[in-house]
């Protein structure tokens, strides 16, 4: 497994999104860029906050569960605590929702725009303990870039 170059990825993200005004297009390309740049993952996507639940948005990977309550799974924990969840073994996480049986570890990052939660970025890996502190910091940086650019748009998906 190669260590992801998050600094390079951040500049690629700016190149892709800086001039894009459409939120759905920008979000879809955010997901596409990360999915293809991070090794050993089997699912990466956005769950969007809709009312009091998370709803499936742009993603890459197998079809996944569509509705997740804020008290459900790793995604719900990230959304309700506003804290990144880095889970080394999803089978040991109480209430983990299995979408793809191959998933063994997971990284979920809350997306906060103008001080408001808009959703979460969810990344799954078939490798146990796939995500290091470096990965967490790198993906959090990319999410900050995505959210800062999102603040300039009027809408979200
Ligand atoms: N594993 C997640 C559910 C979403 S899928 O992994 C795509 C969870 O427990 O929140």
Detailed description of the structure:
- With 157 residues, the protein is α+β, with helices and mostly antiparallel strands.
- The protein has one domain (6-152): Beta-Lactamase, CATH 3.30.450.40.
- It contains 4 helices and 6 strands.
- The protein has helices at 6-17, 23-37, 73-81, 133-150, and strands at 43-50, 53-61, 67-69, 85-87, 105-113, 116-125.
- Helix 1 (6-17) runs parallel beside helix 4 (133-150).
- The longest helix has 18 residues, at 133-150.
- The protein is globular.
- The relative contact order is 0.20.
- The model has no long low-confidence stretch (mean pLDDT 95).
- The protein binds methionine sulfoxide (SME).
- Methionine sulfoxide is lined by residues 43, 64-65, 68, 73-75, 96-97, 99, 103, 106, 122, 124.
Mean pLDDT: 95
- Biggest beta sheet summary: 6 strands, antiparallel
Query: Which radius of gyration do the C-alpha atoms yield?
Result: 14 Å
Beta-strand content bin: 25-35%
Label the structural class: alpha+beta
Q: Which consecutive residue ranges, at least 5 long each, have pLDDT under 50?
A: none
From N to C, what is the helix and strand string? HHEEEHEEEH
**CATH architecture classification:** 2-Layer Sandwich
CATH T-level topology = Beta-Lactamase
Q: Can you identify the CATH class?
A: Alpha Beta
Distance between the termini: 33 Å
The ligands bound in this entry are: methionine sulfoxide
CATH superfamily: GAF domain
- Strand tally: 6
| Cross-sheet strand order for the largest sheet | 3-2-1-6-5-4
- What is the molecular shape? globular
């Amino acid at each position: 497994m190669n260590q992801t170059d998050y600094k390079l990825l951040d500049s690629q993200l700016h190149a892709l999104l800086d001039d894009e005004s459409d939120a759905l297009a920008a979000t879809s390309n955010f997901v596409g860029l990360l999915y293809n740049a991070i090794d050993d993952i089997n699912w990466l996507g956005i769950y969007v906050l809709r009312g009091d639940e998370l709803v499936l948005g742009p993603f890459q990977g197998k079809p996944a569960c569509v509705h997740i309550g804020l008290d459900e799974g790793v995604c719900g924990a990230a959304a309700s605590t506003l804290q990144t969840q880095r889970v080394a073994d999803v089978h040991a996480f109480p209430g983990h929702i299995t979408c793809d049986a191959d998933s063994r570890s997971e990284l979920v990052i809350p997306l906060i725009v103008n001080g408001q939660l808009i959703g979460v970025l969810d990344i799954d890996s078939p490798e146990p303990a796939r995500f290091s502190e470096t990965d967490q910091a790198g993906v959090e940086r990319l999410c900050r870039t995505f959210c800062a650019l999102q603040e300039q748009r009027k809408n979200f998906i």
